[in-house]
Amino acid sequence: MQQAWIPLLLSLKVAGWATALNLVFGVAAGFGLSRWRSGARDVIDSLLMLPLVMPPTVLGYYLLVLLGRRGVIGAWLDRFDIQLVFTWQGAVIASTVVAFPLVLKSARAAFEAVDPQLERAARTLGVSETAVFFRVTLPLAARGILAGGLLAFARALGEFGATLMIAGNLPGRTQTLSVAVYSAVQAGDDGTANFLVLVTSVTCVAILLLAGRLVPQHTLLASR
Amino acid sequence: MPLAVDIRKTFESAERRFTLDVSFKASTQRVVLFGPSGAGKTLTLQAIAGLLRPDEGKITLNGDALFDSARGVDLRPQARRVGYLFQDYALFPHLNVRQNIGFGLQQGWLNPRARIAHPQVDYWLDALELRSVAGNHPAQLSGGQKQRVALARALVAQPRLLLLDEPFSALDSVLRQRMRRELSDLQTRLDIPMVLITHDPDDVAAFGDQVVQATDGCVRENQPFTGYVRSER
Q1: B191 burial type by CB count under 10 A (0-12 exposed, 13-18 middle, 19+ buried)
Q2: Is B72 left (phi over 0), alpha (psi -120 to 50) or beta?
Q3: Which residue ranges does the record assign to the ABC transmembrane type-1 domain (chain A) (predicted)?
Q4: Which residues of B touch A222 (CB under 8 A)?
Q5: What do you get for the CA distance between the two ends of chain A, in Å?
Q6: Distance of residue A133 Cα from the nearest chain B Cα, in angstroms
Q7: Quick one: B25 and B71 in the same domain?
């Protein structure tokens, strides 16, 4: 039973990193798409949303082709002695890619909902464009971004297909919670499976409760 | 007032084509831009503030070119030092009254602290009787208080020119008269040049030392003023 905490902690670590990365890249992409006026915008948007509809195993295969030792990026990284396949960092990348559209979509919608008049007002008050973003746009979009971040965390926590493809199933090293459940069931180890499932369920309920607490307060604040 | 505007901009969409053609020189401290909605009044203010880029022309303030298509001058709104009072006030909903007023005093990536103590902020809190609501957020303010916060926020940065977009339209008629008087007193005290846009003839009567008329995108100072006096037709 003691060993069940290892996949849980690993899953939390992987999902935490994936969420943090998405809060940077997803928010940046969401902001870019919300402000960019071009015909190519819809095409880019569709491409970036692909991870939401593609089977995770297919995504995992793409990542394997790109990041594997003979892959385009993998070969380059290999020169610096960096390997991502069969590592927890590889699992982070898999979870990040899978959860990316959730943050992107929430962030884009949140940025589009910010009243442009407020940004104009900030400009006439003399603060720089970067300051307008960090002092007006981002705080007003924070609620939507946070909601997207929590969804992404939950999605990353449950990631299975892409993670299995790129990080494998190495107990203690890359075996995340959902992969561990699968392994336990395959091995006929019902006790471990039950315990892991219970831990997963409790963790997910806790996240949802946390989300429910965080989001409405911000809703009130931003709608004022 | 040494403000001269002479600009043109064409907006084209599938449904219609709108040409903004503005040409006026302000000769007094109080100029009213008068005309029906959709005539291009707000667009004119936005062009002066640098929020809208004209196709061609020239805008000068105190002899400085804010915009000059011939010389390739187009100052960013941040560099124009022009105060702008938006029609819906555009107060920052996530900041309290103090932070809203002090917004322009602080450069950098962080907003002023909730208890920002700055002599300018304190001065305006007292001058516009906002001390009692200093810690409130905009949603908790009345219409008149919102307007005063917006005014303080614009004036704290010591602008060279104050632009007001329908400043009284969101207020009820009693409050409207009072705020008109307050703004008038404030303008006299600060001696700051201002351009006020309105479709309300009462505003013209109160602030129209010089009236500039806007009609269907054409903004001119020397057109006969027909909307208010000669309404018996």
Answers
A1: exposed
A2: left
A3: 8-211
A4: 93-94
A5: 49
A6: 8
A7: yes
Q: Chain B neighbours among A 90-149 (CB < 8 Å)?
A: 115, 117-118, 120-128, 130-131, 134-136, 139-140
Q: What is the pLDDT of residues A50-105, one digit of tens each?
A: 998 999 999 999 999 998 888 888 888 888 888 888 899 999 999 999 999 999 99
Whether the CB-CB separation of A112 and A66 falls below 8 Å is answered with no
Looking at the fold, whether B145 and B179 belong to one and the same domain comes out as yes
Hey, are the CB atoms on A120 and B86 less than 8 Å from each other? yes
ipTM of the complex: 0.87
Per-residue pLDDT tens over the stretch A104-124: 999 999 999 999 999 999 999
Show me where the domains of chain A are located: 2-223
Q: Are B207 and B196 in contact (CB under 8 A)?
A: yes
Fold of A2-223: MetI-like fold (1.10.3720)
Model pTM score: 0.84
> Which of B51, B99, B162 is the best mutation test for A, with the most CBs of A within 10 A?
B51
Contact check, Cβ <8 Å, A122/B103: yes
Asked if residue B146 lies in contact with residue B138, where contact means CB atoms within 8 angstroms, the answer is: yes
Total domains in the fold of chain B: 2
CA atoms within 13 A on the CB side of A37: 1
